[in-house]
Amino acid sequence: MTIDELRAKAAERQQTCTQIKKMIVSRLDLEIEPDWITDDQPLFGRGLELDSLDVLELYVAIEAEFGVALYDSEMAVFGSVSRLADEVNPALRAS
Amino acid sequence: MASVLANLHPEDTVYGDVGDASLPRRFSAAPDALSAEYKVLRERAAILDLSAHLLIEVTGAEAIDFAQRVLARDVEYLTSERCMMSLVLDESGQVVDQVLAFGREDGILLESSAGAGARLLEHLRTHNDEGVEITERDDLTVLGLEGPYAWGVVGRLIDGELAALPFESVVDTTWNDSEIIFARTGFTGEYGYQMLVPKSAVGELWTQSLEHAQAAGQDALELAMLEVRQPIPRHEVTGGANVIEIGANWLVDVTKDAFVGKDAVLEAFEAGTGRRTVGFTGGEGVPTAGTRVYAGGEDVGEVVHAVHSVGLGTTLGLIRVDADLAAAGLEFTVAGSEVTTLTSPYIVPKSWSIPII
After folding, report:
1. Which of A22, A90, B20, B164 has the fewest CB atoms within 10 Å, i.e. the most exposed one?
2. What one-character-per-residue DSSP string does B1-18 give?
3. Contact (CB<8Å) B344/A79
4. Does residue B149 carry a pLDDT above 90?
C-alpha cells in the first residue's frame, strides 16, 4: 500500500472517530472540544469517566446518528472511540 | 531504594532498577514467570508490591491552591473520600510524572509512579510558591490488588463492603489495628484496589495477602497496563514527546483556569501537527524503542515501547507516527517486518464481564 493510500485509510477512520467524539460531547454535554478526546483513551471508569447512565444515552445516540443498535453488545465496544468506530462503521474492520 | 518487602520476596525474585527504585520485576527467575504472573493478574487476583511509588503529603493553608496549580487535573473539590489520576507537567508541557492524588482533610496526598518519587518531590519543592509543607511520607508504603477476582480478596482480607466501592473512592479504615487508606483504583482495566499502609504493618499484610492472591511483578503489571492503553510514563515520555503526542489528554483538564504546563499543552493541541501514538502488533521479534517505522517506504515515525504480549501471543507495542497516519487498521514496516495498528483496548479485561458479588 502506498503512503497516500495509507493516509486515505487513516482519514476514513479518523473521520468516523471525529463524528463519534462530536456525538459524545454533544449528547453528554461535555465541556471539552471533541478532538480533546483521543481515539484510544478509555471511556468508562478511567479516561472520559462515563458511567452506566451515559452508556444508555450513547446507545440511543448511536442508533439515531449511525443507525446501529448496540443494546446487546458487550461493554468492550465502548472500550475506546476507535473501538466504537469499528461498530458503527464496519467497513473500517473489513478494509 | 530497595523494596521494603524485599526480605519477604522469594530468593530468585528478579529485581530491576526503575528511576530511583529497585523493584520486583518478576517473583521468580523461571522462564515462564512473566506468563504465570500475567495470567494471575488477568484471570484471578494479583497482589502488587508498589513500594516504589513514593507518597508525598502536601499540607498547609494553601495546599489545595498549590495542588491545583501543579496538577494537570482539577482537584479543587477532591474530598478525603476520593482520589484521581493526574499528570504533573513542567512549564514546557513535558510530563514530570503521572500521580494518584488522594484528597485529605488537611491537604492532599500524592502517589508517584514507580521510581519517579525523587524527581516528583524535587519538582514540587521547586514550584512551592505558596509555601506549603511538602513531606515525604516514608512511614507509609503502597500495596495493590488487581484482577477479575480481586474484589473477593478484599472481602476475605479486609472488608467485603470495601470491594464494591465506586471507582476512585477512598476509605480510611483499619487492618490488624493499623490505620490504612484503602482505595478503589486500578491500572489494568481489571478490578483494582490500593492500600496505603504503615511500613510497620506492610509485611504482615503482604504475607496474609499471599494466602488469597498471588504476587505479580512490574513486568506483568506494565504489560497489562499497555494492553488497556494506560500510560506508562517511563516508557512513553521519550524524545521530548508532549502530552498530545503521548495521547494522555485524559489526564489533563484543559477546562481548568490555570496549571503548570497548560499553555504549552494548549499550543500543541491547537497546532494539530506532530506525531501521535497508536498501538501495533505483529512483526518478527520485539523491536527496541527508537526503531524506525516505515509506510510505503517512507520514514513516518518510531517505536515507543514494545513487549511480547502473553495475552496476544505476539508482539504488542506503541509506535509514534505522523498524525495523519495515526489510526488503527494500517500496515507499517518495522525492522523489516509488517506490523498492524490496533484499536484499544488490545485485550478486553475479564473484569468487564464479571460482576462483584
Report:
1. A90
2. ---TTGGGS-TTPEEEEE
3. yes
4. yes
